[in-house]
Every structure is written in structure tokens, then in C-alpha cells.
Amino acid sequence: MAQTPTAEGTTRPQERLSSGPSSNRPGRFSDRRREREPEPPWVPKTRLGTLVSTGKITSLEEIFESGQRIKEAEIIKQLAPDMKTNVVSVGIVQKQTDAGEVTKFAAVVAVGNEAGWFGVGRGKAVQMRSAIDKATNDAFLNLIPVKRGCGSWECRCGQNHSVPFRISGKGGSVRVEIIPGPRGLGLVAGETVRNLLTLAGIKDAWTRTYGSTSTMSSIANAVYDALKRIHGIGVIH
Fold first, then answer.
1. Contact (CB, 8 A) for 218 and 199
2. Rounded-to-integer distance, Cα 180 and Cα 95, Å
3. Would you say residue 28 has pLDDT above 60?
4. % residues pLDDT > 90 (the chain)
5. Can you count the helices (H) and strands (E) in the chain?
6. Residue spans of alpha helices (H) in the chain
7. What pLDDT does residue 41 have?
8. Distance between CA atoms of residues 49 and 155, nearest Å
């Protein structure tokens, strides 16, 4: 360390300027890591949201039995805080405009509580995190109850561990068939289909897939369509 003479003729160590992260100097040397801002309090915008926020509706079953449509994702977050999410796929999409190419992220997310509720949503945004958040909120709005049962002739235990009968669904060029299985079988399926059925609360089943199964978004829509067909609600393309 360099030394400088003093008025008394002695020497003392020369002080060094600190320019690391520990410096108190503001600007470029300050800590740039920022925590994510907390979400603002929920202000309901629909009549259903007001009933949920005031505690007059306390379960998802009440909403679906009354036939009301959910238009706010916060309703699901409040009534079912144990919902789990699974990012099925994230890709890049481009759009040609007069100013050039516009690049965005497209995400597909599945949600479920592993106990009979399941939903799939899609979202696009310039940032990946925003695309996933949009897809998650869309999945909450598309949440459906999954009717479970024991449709296997080998089991007939009467418990809700599989599907009540053979079902099939279609998404794009992919078709998925779900066959009831006995208890203890597990999910005989690919990784993506297995994760989706686990979110829906199905524990034992055989599955078959047809078409371009490498398209994750089509597989997710096909599984969602199959589970929705149990109630005869309709078909999603």
C-alpha cells in the first residue's frame, strides 16, 4: 500500500477510493437488484366478484351450480388459493408490420388443484414473464370441474381416482383418448399428458395420443377438451 508523508515527517497509508457494490455512492455502483412489486389490492369489477369479496359466495361449486361465468381471475385466487400452475410451453411468435417484425412470447399454462379442478390458458406478450402471467389468468377464467369416478371394469371400487368412462378430446391435429384404469395403475401416458391429468386430480388411467404430439399447446387443448366433454359442455378448437 502506498504511503504519503505528513507534516510531522511520519508516513501514513494512502486511502483508497471504494467503487464496489458496498460503496454508498449512488448511481451505477448501487445495487440494481429490485424486488417484484406487490400486487395492488383487488377491487371487484363484476357482481360475482363483489359477492366473493364480501363472503357471500365461499366456494367454486356455488358458482358453477348457479351457472355464472367467471370474468375475474382474482375470484379463483381467493376461493382456491391452493391452485397449482404448470407452464406447458413457451415459444416465440413474430408478426410482420409496416415498421418491421414484432416479436412476442406465446405461453400455454395449465392450472389445477389436483382435486377435480382444471383449466388451460394462453397468453402473448413482449416479455416472457408477462406472457406466462397472462396465460395463467386466462387458465383461471377457463377453469372447469372435472368429473371423476371409477369406470374400470377391473376395479369398481367406487372411488374418484380415474375417469367415469372412456373419453376423448381434440386440439389442433392432436387427439387424446383417456381410458379408465384400476387403482394402483398410475397414469400410463407421456410426460406432458401425465402432468396435466395430475393437475386435474386423475391418478389412474391409460391414454392414447394421435397426431402431431410434439405440439405441446395442442396436447394441452386436447386434454382440456376431453375433460370438458364429460359434462357435455362443448368442444374447444
1. no
2. 43
3. no
4. 64
5. 6, 10
6. 47-53, 60-66, 73-79, 128-141, 191-200, 216-229
7. 84
8. 42
Cβ contact 142:135 at 8 Å: no
Q: What is the CA radius of gyration of the chain?
A: 27
Of 105, 103, 83, 87, which Cα lies nearest the Cα of 95? 103
Nearest CA-CA partner of 169 in 182, 179, 183: 179
Q: Under a CB-based contact definition with an 8 Å cutoff, are residues 79 and 70 in contact?
A: no
What cell was used for 80?
Answer: 382456491
C-alpha closest to that of 209 among 199, 228, 221, 201: 221
What is the widest separation between alpha-carbon atoms in the chain? 101
Nearest alpha-carbon partner for 81 in 59, 66, 54? 59
Examine the pLDDT at 50 and tell me if it is beyond 60: yes
pLDDT of amino acid 87:
95
Place of cell 391429468: 197
Spatial distance between the Cα atoms of 225 and 100, rounded to a whole number of angstroms: 37
